[in-house]
Design goal:
28% of the residues lie in helices and 19% in strands. The longest helix has 12 residues. Belongs to the TRM112 family.
Amino acid sequence: MKLLTLNFLTCAIKTCKSNPASFPLHPKDAELEQIEIDMNPIFIRNILPRLDWVALKTLSSELGLASLPEDVPTEEELMGEDGEATQTLKDLHVLLMETGIASGRLCCGACGHEYAVKEGIANFLLPSHLV
């Protein structure tokens, strides 16, 4: 499960839908995996406005990964004057596209429910009493 995906997931329990603490889900005992892929600067630039930057910073710090700038990087901060990718763009690429959770748990900050992650796939199926 790529870390980019966690920026779009929230707790599936009905009582958590309106609780802001249900987002983002917090990784626990996460085993990370790196899968190298070619950098796509256009994709990174286009996905940035859709991300919750505070949630991404929280996730990055909880996992002990790259420290991100306080605010969403501007176009100039992503691409240098010579058209080359800056270190910020490279760090975002590694964080969002190459880093994934192979196994562990995702925990809701509101209710504490944990979703298992096995072989890179999160199980969001709920027991009938929580639906």
